[in-house]
Amino acid sequence: MDRIFIEHLALRGKHGVSGEERSHEQEFVLDVTVDFDTAVAAKSDELSDTIDYNHFRDAARAVVAGPSFKLLERLADAVAQRILDEQRIAAVSVTVRKTEMFPDCTPGVTVKRQRV
């Protein structure tokens, strides 16, 4: 299976375990990869035959800007589920990094979801 991806999508949202974290926006950096057969698009050279990565950006922006989640796992899952709304996508991997949490490292999580 082929893959289509975006990396280093920097978004701001109010997510975290503590009320303090959810009281102000923080940066979250996302990578999204979907499994998708690109053979038809490779031959046709038409956007309608592939998955437009704007779909990933729009889905991630809507979720990160939306209601607060305590855990990155929940945030990443919500993004993945929104991306899977596009019926042609077989599977998705979403990595979320919380860049402002610690001064010396960046925590994050990767979830992988597939169509059942």
Q: Percent of residues in helical segments?
A: 25-40%
The count of helical stretches stands at 4
Strand order of the largest sheet: 1-2-3-4
Total number of domains: 1
Write out the CATH superfamily name: GTP cyclohydrolase I, C-terminal domain/NADPH-dependent 7-cyano-7-deazaguanine reductase, N-terminal domain
The ordered H/E elements are EHEHHHEE
Q: Mind telling me the CATH class?
A: Alpha Beta
Please explain how this structure is put together.
The protein has 116 residues and is α+β, with helices and mostly antiparallel strands. The chain has a single domain (3-114), classed as GTP cyclohydrolase I, C-terminal domain/NADPH-dependent 7-cyano-7-deazaguanine reductase, N-terminal domain (GTP Cyclohydrolase I, domain 2, 2-Layer Sandwich). Helix content is 30%, strand content 31%. The protein has helices at residues 19-23, 39-44, 54-65, 72-83; strands at 3-13, 26-35, 91-98, 108-114. A four-stranded antiparallel β-sheet has the order 1-2-3-4, with helices on one face. Helix 3 crosses helix 4. The radius of gyration is 15 Å and the shape is elongated. The model has no long low-confidence stretch (mean pLDDT 95).
